[in-house]
Amino acid sequence: MSAGAPSGGTPGAHGREGPDPRRWKALSVCLVAGFMTLLDVSIVNVALPSVRAGLHASPSDLQWVVSGYALALGLVLVPAGRFGDMRGRRTAFVFGVTMFTLASVLAGVAPGSRWLVVARVVQGAAGGVITPQISGLIQQLFRGAERGRAFGLFGATVGISTAVGPLLGGLLIQVGGHQEGWRYVFYVNVPIGVLAVLLAYRYLPGGSPEYRRRESMDPVGVLLLAAGISLTLLPLVEAHQWHGQARWLLIPAGFLVVAGFTGWERRYGRRHDPMVDLSLFRMRSYALGTLLGTLYFGGLTAIFFILTQYLQEGVGYSALQAGLTSTAFALGSAPSAALGGRVVARFGRPLVAFGLVLVTVGLAATDLAVRLVPGHEVGWALAAPLLVAGLGNGMVISPNQTLALSQVPVARAGAAGGVLQTGQRIGSAIGIAAVGSAFFTQVASTHGDYTVAFRHALLVNIAFVLAALVTALIDVAADRRSHP
Length: 484
Known about the structure:
Number of domains: 2
Distance between the termini: 15 Å
CATH class of the largest domain: Mainly Alpha
Radius of gyration: 21 Å
Structural class: mainly alpha
Number of helices: 17
Mean pLDDT: 84
Largest sheet: 2 strands, antiparallel
Helix content: over 70%
Strand order of the largest sheet: 1-2
CATH architecture of the largest domain: Up-down Bundle
CATH superfamily of the largest domain: MFS general substrate transporter like domains
């Protein structure tokens, strides 16, 4: 497996002196900060009714509380990864966590909805600074089987944060009250962020290779990529508030700008170090891993979006009850992600394909449970299918990330991880737009039948997961042809 092949590094990580003895403590700091940023993607969904009641927010403002975070996160990932590669990942990490903590305070004290939207945009941008540093530091600090285990723990963090968000949000709202409980959702980040900053200076390695410090941030590339991502994501994140068909013209316009960015990077790369090294996409593991992650997150993120809507609006569950239902997914995801990280070097892409099969089976069983057990008892019926889907999820996210980045040089790990995660954010936006459209269209056409709407939208989720499975199988087949 190439995942264990050394590919450069920095002193004190894996040089002549051996691995950094603080690497596991450094990883724990990264995972705490990663959990905090990823949690804010899912926890806010159950807090929206409380925000509406407390701030008298309009539907458009509520949409931007969610989409503003996602849009800013997607815009910052790649240039932030590039900055960490050049100037030092600890510097970028501490800056991102500090900004995220301050933005959480601003969100918690928001006197109005517009203030909250601005704070959420700053939060998303700060999260976009933090996330690529985590994957870059894992590449820098770990090698071989240890790297797989480290990515496995990161994958478990992703799965847990996605599934636990609604539960934790429900608990905090119950403690704080219906009108003011949403503020607790943001205040909970403050002590975590302060602790992460203090520990980062103690355990994270500082410095960066000197030759990278002399390179430019490629400002033209940054602007072109930001414009392309904005044009692509904006009509998707605003799909339910921005009426009219003209908005969809922005997506092909975004693709054209991204094509222009690709041309610029090729030209810029002839004389300088480009922001995104396009030669990485010649590596099958990286190209197919990025595509697989984009497709899979299109199905994964949208599952919890429609599940909480169905349980709260259709079944009448409270925010806490809806959150409890999704914990089965987290219970399955956490141990399987840790196990997947340990065995990915042995099994490779077939492990990811097996995980995708389990997710598909779990989602199909979820549809069956909703059909056979309608009404208030459906939460118990959903536990087993979501557990199976969670077990599969743990074998997809962290193993795929390990395989995708296995041949990427450490000096480019931050930017490469940023591109990988940008694809995941775009996939999430596409998935929520497509699945949400199917869900709300059915709610309107069936006069409020949330059960039918949920089952209909779930088919779109399954289609995304199956597309990811096809991608994994293509990689497995290509690997067997090259290594019979």
